[in-house]
């Protein structure tokens, strides 16, 4: 870290960085006057965190509470902590965050973590620690996934991440390149990013309106290594772009975003599917995933790399073997066309159509405020995890299947038909 921040030239364009903070607060969150904000960020994203706090208070925020993480401190735990530490999580902290949400606070997460941070650590410690955190975090996460509150995720080009995305470049060059890729994908490289986001949201809502009108019974994905029929939940709803939270605030949860997505039927997925991009999951790269579904459940799972981690993840709970999301992204999306593999789901999931293992979004059902039993009855999945992985490419066709078995094309060779 540079103790004289501001005195030394940075490879990150300060004007675009400030616009990203402004877009996160005004479009991402639509933070309201008097509303509190819980902000989480890696400590190396401090320059963006500071700009966000500034824009938040200028927008009238009540109280902004930053919570920072540090890669070195995380690694120190894996190096020096007693074994029992890996079954524990800061339940008190997550309870406090859940209480803040109940009291009306918004949530903003800055992503920039080194995707390979835990690659050399004991996979069983990694999965135990993740499971403990997932359990402790669940009450807060449920308020996020159910859109009780307005929330947003943006990214910051940290050096370790940048060096992974642009190997072989000097650190400064890698950071500058990743910064530009983030700014362009986040639409802050234009003079009026707020207007650009309004236009983008309108185009995504055109897609969701078409899909909601069709109300397909299932989607069938076909392509190299893939023939997968994904049943859609009864009364499913397609979402994308801006979303109105239950507190009445319309937010843009993911910046960037290119996807339209809905809830699959957890018991009606059949066939086999192969991933089209590597999945970076909490420090491990899982590549060339190949799974087979029967009656909605993964009965066979393999990967050319990270197969042990994948299988541990699938054993998290019963819902981890079933789908909680299906999302459509055209192959021509700007993130896909950039050709950059970000090793970060926030970006990579917007480069290709994808599915997610685990927890569904109850907001992807037409009826709101359904009980957990009702959501399950309609096919919504429940799990501690939600992990997106990419199955789309320029070689994949997607058909919409109606309840009577008739079908029509949705995508051909990765593009809207
Ligand atoms: Zn998604
Ligand atoms: Zn997802």
Low-confidence stretches: 2-7
- The oligomeric state is single chain
State the helical fraction: 25-40%
Individual helix count: 12
Please state how the strands of the largest beta sheet are arranged side by side: 14-13-10-6-5-18-19-20
Structural class: alpha+beta
Major sheet characteristics:
8 strands, antiparallel
**What global shape is seen?**
globular
* Rg, Cα atoms, Å: 21 Å
Our count of domains comes out at: 2
Bin the strand percentage: 15-25%
* Strand segment count: 20
List each distinct ligand once: zinc ion
**What's the pLDDT, averaged over the residues?**
94
Describe the structure.
The chain has 12 helices and 20 strands. It is α+β, with helices and mostly antiparallel strands and 417 residues long. The protein has 2 domains: 14-185, Thermophilic metalloprotease-like (3-Layer(aba) Sandwich); 216-241 and 255-416, no CATH class. The strands form 5 sheets. It has an 8-stranded antiparallel sheet with strand order 14-13-10-6-5-18-19-20. It has a 4-stranded parallel sheet with strand order 2-1-3-4, sandwiched between helices. A hairpin with a 2-residue loop joins strand 19 (407-412) and strand 20. Helix 1 packs across helix 2 (46-58). The longest helix has 23 residues, at 123-145. It starts with 13 loop residues before the first helix and ends with a strand. Bound molecules: zinc ion (2 copies).
């Amino acid at each position: 870290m540079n103790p004289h921040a501001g005195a030394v030239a940075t490879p990150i364009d300060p004007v675009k960085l400030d616009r990203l903070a402004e877009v996160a607060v005004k479009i991402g969150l639509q933070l309201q006057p008097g509303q509190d904000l819980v902000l989480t960020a890696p400590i190396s994203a401090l320059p963006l965190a500071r700009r966000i706090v500034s824009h938040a208070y200028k927008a009238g925020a009540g109280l902004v509470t930053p919570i920072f993480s540090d890669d070195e401190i995380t690694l120190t735990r894996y190096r020096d902590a007693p074994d029992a530490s890996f079954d524990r999580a800061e339940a008190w902290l997550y309870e406090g965050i859940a209480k803040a949400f109940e009291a009306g606070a918004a949530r903003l997460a800055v992503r920039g973590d080194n995707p390979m941070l835990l690659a050399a650590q004991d996979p069983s410690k990694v999965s135990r620690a993740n499971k403990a955190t997932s359990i402790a975090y669940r009450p807060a996460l449920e308020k996020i996934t159910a859109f009780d509150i307005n929330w947003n995720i943006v990214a910051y080009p940290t050096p370790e991440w940048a060096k992974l995305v642009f190997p072989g470049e000097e650190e400064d060059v890698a950071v500058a390149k990743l910064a530009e890729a983030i700014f362009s994908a986040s639409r802050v490289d234009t003079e009026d990013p707020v207007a650009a986001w309004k236009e983008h949201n309108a185009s995504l809502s055109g897609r969701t309106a078409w899909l909601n009108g069709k109300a397909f019974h299932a989607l069938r994905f076909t392509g190299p290594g893939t023939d997968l029929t994904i049943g859609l939940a009864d009364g499913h709803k397609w979402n994308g772009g801006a979303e109105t939270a239950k507190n009445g605030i319309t937010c843009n949860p993911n910046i960037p975003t290119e996807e339209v997505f809905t809830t699959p039927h957890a018991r009606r997925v059949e066939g086999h599917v192969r991933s089209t991009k590597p999945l970076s999951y909490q420090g491990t790269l899982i590549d060339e995933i190949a799974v087979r579904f029967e009656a909605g459940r993964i009965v066979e799972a393999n990967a050319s790399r990270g197969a042990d981690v994948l299988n541990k993840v699938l054993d998290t709970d019963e819902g981890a073997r079933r789908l909680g999301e299906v999302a459509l992204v055209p192959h021509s999306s700007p993130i896909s066309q950039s050709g950059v593999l970000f090793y970060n789901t926030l970006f990579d999931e917007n480069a290709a159509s994808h599915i997610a293992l685990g927890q569904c979004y109850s907001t992807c059902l037409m009826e709101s405020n359904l009980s957990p039993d009702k959501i399950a009855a309609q096919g919504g999945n429940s799990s501690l995890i939600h992990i997106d992985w990419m199955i789309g490419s320029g070689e994949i066709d997607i058909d919409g299947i109606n309840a009577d078995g008739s079908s029509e094309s949705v995508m051909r060779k990765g593009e809207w038909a």
